[in-house]
Amino acid sequence: MSYLDKITSPTLLLDEKICRANIKRMADKAARHDMKLVPHFKTAQSNQIGDWSKEYNITEITVSSVKMAEYHAGQGWVNIHIAFPFNPLEIPKLNEIAARQSMSVQLINADTARMLADQLEHTVGFFIEIDAGYGRTGVEVSDFGLIEEILLIAKNSDKLKFKGFYLHAGHSYYMPDIPELYEQTRNALSMLKHKYNSEYPHLLTRTGDTPGCAVMEDFGDIDEMGPGNFVFYDMMQVDLGSCDREDVAVCLAVPVVDIKKDKKEILVHGGGVHLAKDVLVGENGLKNFGEVVLLNENGWTITEQKSFVKSISQEHGLIKATDELLEQVKVGDILGILPIHSCMTADAMGGYMTLDGKMVDHAEGCV
């Protein structure tokens, strides 16, 4: 029985072969640069995909919430790092997890550091997040007063242990000159390493954006990389030049419910609650919520002429279709959509189906 015979409603397909190739490629790159790969599991959020990752010498992961850490705890990871400015209201839950799983958190202010120092019941590591130009969050790279205030609080604690500096160059998603951006990242982390290395000889530096980790070949003396989206990739990463369409490992299967040939439109059951609402806007101003591919027994085929989802509502997706696609599709067929942002699509769908019809877990689902 084909996996296609099991699909009656929107289903997120996962090509295990492509996913494994993506993991291996990034693991090989980290090894080539003498770096440790600590992937961000906010993308996959799957213990099974975690097991695949372990086959490529990955021993630690990053997550974006305490809830996600709890899901992945106890699965054999050497450490789980929560790469989000830590919310002190969740210290009791962190204590529960840290009783059975090595954990680290991310700090950007002294107030949270003090609360952790006062309330932790088990040893927890921490990275200080650094802002070297992104502007979203983190300690300004030149704010040594705040850095040293946090370090002093940790020195006086027997539970809070300094691990190093973390820098997420998230502006690589919209800055065209990634090499220039990475020069800032390298310089910032190298400066901090050399400034504090004598006092903390084992401190680590980590960077984590997928576009930079995918295209750069000069990481300086950065110790670790922690990209996330690379396990699946998506059309945003294709647009940024991080990967090719053939590297996208997930595809939303959607039923065709209506066709209007005169308008060159195909209506599918697949909207914002499935794809999320991330969008690419072309030079002509047309919005693209996902690219259409043709499903087959072995996965999907990328067509030469591009059809795309031009608009979405909660459950509906409206495809701007080429003549080629209109000739091949009828009501009741199933089409595939390569997502714009695979992390959000996976989170919305809460589970995966492999091309052999097996279900793969996701933290937000119940498969």
TrEMBL record:
> Molecular function terms in GO for this entry?
alanine racemase activity
SUPFAM superfamilies from the UniProt entry? PLP-binding barrel
What are its E.C. numbers? 5.1.1.1
InterPro entries cross-referenced by the UniProt entry: Ala_racemase_N, D-amino_acid_metab_enzyme, D-ser_dehydrat-like_dom, D-ser_dehydrat-like_sf, PLP-binding_barrel
Query: D-serine dehydratase-like domain spans which residues?
Result: 249-353
Top enzyme class, one word, equals isomerase
Q: Which residues form the Alanine racemase N-terminal domain?
A: 19-196
Q: Name one Pfam family in it.
A: Ala_racemase_N
Q: Which UniProt keywords apply?
A: Isomerase, Lyase
Reading the lineage from the top rank, the first entry is: Bacteria
Q: Which residues cross the membrane?
A: none
Sequence similarity: Belongs to the DSD1 family.
Protein name from the UniProt record: Alanine racemase
